[in-house]
Amino acid sequence: NKLTNLQYSNQLQQYPKNHKANASVSANPVELLLQSEYEKNPDHIEKGLMYTYLLLKEDKAEEADIVLQQLLEKHPNNSALIAAQMEANARSRQSDENSTLLEQLNDVDPDLPAVLMHNIELALESEDIDEVERLYERYKSLFPQSSDLASIKLTLLVQRKDNEGLLQYIKDKYNENPRNTFWAGIYANVIFQETRKPGKVIDVYEDLVDDNYLADPLEELADLYLNNDNFSDWKETMFRLMEHYPSESYYLDEMADVYASMRDFDEAEKYYKAALEICPGCTGFLSDMGDMYEQNGKDDQALAMYREALDRVPTMYNLRDKIRKLEDKEPVFDVFDVIDVDSLVRAVSRTQEDYPDDETVLLLEDTRRVVYAGGTSEYIVERLYQVLNKDGVDKLKEYAAYYYGYRENLNIEQAKVFKANGQEIEADQSGNEVVFTELEVGDTFATVCARIAAAVWQVTSGTKATSTPEFLPSMCATPCLFLRISSFLTISTTQNKNP
């Protein structure tokens, strides 16, 4: 039935902070019924399983486990109960116990799908390809319609290094169902590898989306058109996406980005505004529109977009840099005095004799902090270490910049090793980890410099900012962990912490 007297708005609203709604939790009548039926018939496996799976569906793994334990005491080799116990373990994060249950299931019924898949995985781990082949044929004979068969077959062909068979299998599966997005995607890659003709790939996707309204293949086709300079078909496909997904405002933003890259600023502005009509609070759209205005030389409008986005999300630190640039201000950290690390490396040297009980020496820790109105802050920490012996090298060679992954973003900007002869060697980086492959005792120096941008508190207009730098212990732990190490190391990181 159509709702009446319903009011809606996409504008920011003010809500009372201390409003207490009347809320009560009603018991699930189906759960009460199944519980009653099970308690009347505690030996009845089917009723116990029905009650168990309902509990699991409601994330009541502990209650389900109690029911299963009661049933398994009376029916220890019932495969359905053992399978349910495995699911309960997975829900309660006790999956490590499932290997034992799988062995038990293997003794009870080796033809169960879960058992066959487990045995296939074991055979793959031991590289027993013949056993994988045997289990695959068994699985296929028992469950010919299973969706798992394709992945097993693909893995088997890869393990056998049967490239010809692999390509033929992919082609056969695609020809069986060219509207299957999985096989169409793999087949498109095969066709491109064989022909190097993007048009062939486009043909596959055009056939796929003929009566397919899924977003992924339409997005892929739009990208193919755009990358191959087929602008009109790209635009038509984007309109088709927006027709099927009218609330997905990022399609409009993507179109605006393309027009901006072509310097068609009028069209870009039109689509940015259309995206913001749907999602006025999307700060990414505001930032993109600001970039477009800046490219077009409209600095005042760019500043307005950047400031509005920053007002909504004060942790968009890149916008602070853009605003300062448009205001002809120097980068914020340029106002600080900076210690010349290169000169310090040349001037200072410590040996094992100076610190006989240490593995490393922390020669410098310099912190430069900026606190912004509204409760966000950035700071740079620069650390200088010298390695004194081999134990220090072993500890510092693999360096991890610690941060709160669920609240912070970390980007290591620079990591170097300074040799005694003046040579500078870049370290290997991956995520928050740095490996100093050239770190040695005596002739190697290293600096660690970290830039951290953090939202210490989420603040709205008219609210007093409260600084709670709870992220500090994670960073301060780093020099303590590696305090006994030697050579100088230079690591620069940028870290964003969201409220």
Descriptive terms for the model:
five-stranded mixed β-sheet, three-stranded antiparallel β-sheet, 14% strand, alpha+beta, 499 residues, extended, 51% helix
Arithmetic mean pLDDT? 82
Give the biggest beta sheet: 5 strands, mixed
Strand content: 5-15%
Give the ordered list of helices and strands: HHHHHHHHHHHHHHHHHHHEEHEEEEEEHE
Distance between the termini: 40 Å
What does this structure look like?
- The protein has 499 residues and is of the alpha+beta class.
- 51% of the residues lie in helices and 14% in strands.
- It is built from 21 helices and 9 strands.
- Strands 1, 2, 4, 8 and 9 form a 5-stranded mixed beta sheet that branches.
- Helix 5 packs across helix 6 (113-125), helix 14 (250-261) packs parallel to helix 16 and helix 15 (265-278) runs antiparallel to helix 16.
- The longest helix is centred in the middle third of the chain and has 15 residues, at 181-195.
